[in-house]
Amino acid sequence: MKFLVTVKRVTDYEAKIKLKADKSGIVTDGVNMIMNPFDEIGVEEALRQKEKHGGEVVVVSIGTTDSVAQLRSALAMGADRAILVKNDGELDSFGVAKILAKIVAKESPDVVIMGKQAIDDDSNQAAQILAELLGWGQATFANVVTLDARSATVAREADGGLETVKCDLPCIITTDLRLNEPRYASLPGIMKAKKKPLDEIELSSLGVDTALKVKVKAFEEPAAKQAGQKVPDVATLVQKLKTEAKAI
């Protein structure tokens, strides 16, 4: 089987984030960048499925040459080769999906595995849009993935429990947090990753219209948390919940 896995470069979730003065985004200078954790889970799942079924794991990222570091991390985990679609402009989920559709057409994978969302914008849209563009089945928020030659059976996380869905191959699967525990790259893996193929593709060569359908106007810091209050009795608590908090 052939697996195509998306890898996005994002800010470290443990980093201290500051907004730019014009509120157009966050300051990334000096901030540690990592592979999107849900994508890392996707790489791990593809590697596990390859160990069961054989085949190839290809990782793809869209961004500047800085994203090579995250692709090399995926290669060090065990992926076979990598693709970087070079782009330094802003993209929305629809633009990302259209770019990935071109890569899918070129690579013809059996399964596309994507993180359910990126931790920087939390959109959770690109995979669903890609499935629509390709006309493929999709299984989102995967908790358990079982593959055979023709189909994928996925237990997916839903409100209140797990839902099991089955879709024909080729298909798109998005990973949830509890799907697996990503492996650490071994020293031999890190050394081998330096020699594994990494193709760079200019976005302009794909002929994709990436005009934004969604534009971010500005970012705002979350409101400061107000101090709590102590009340003398239950009656006062109920009154404040009703008149001040508007909770009841």
Describe the structure in your own words.
This protein has 248 residues and is an alpha/beta fold. It has a single domain, classed as Rossmann fold. The protein has six helices and eleven strands. The strands form two sheets. It has a nine-stranded mixed β-sheet, sandwiched between helices. Helix 2 crosses helix 5. The longest helix is centred in the N-terminal third of the chain and has 17 residues. The model has no long low-confidence stretch (mean pLDDT 93).
List the helices and strands and how they pair.
Blueprint: E1 2-6, E2 9-11, E3 33-35, H1 37-53, E4 56-63, H2 68-77, E5 81-86, H3 93-107, E6 111-115, H4 126-134, E7 137-147, E8 151-158, E9 161-168, E10 171-175, H5 187-193, E11 198-202, H6 234-243
Parallel strand pairs: 1-4, 1-6, 4-5, 5-11, 6-10, 7-10
Antiparallel strand pairs: 2-3, 7-8, 8-9
Short description:
With 248 residues, this protein is of the alpha/beta class.
List keywords for this structure.
11 strands; 27% helix; 6 helices; globular; 248 residues; two-stranded antiparallel sheet; alpha/beta; Rossmann fold
Strand content bin? 25-35%
Q: Rg to the nearest angstrom? A: 21 Å
Strand order of the largest sheet: 9-8-7-10-6-1-4-5-11
For the record, the count of structural domains works out to 1
CATH superfamily: HUPs
Low-confidence stretches: none
The geometry reads as globular
Distance between the termini: 55 Å
Major sheet, described briefly?
9 strands, mixed
Find the CATH topology: Rossmann fold
Helical proportion, percent range: 25-40%
**Total number of β-strand segments?**
11
Please tell me the overall pLDDT.
Answer: 93
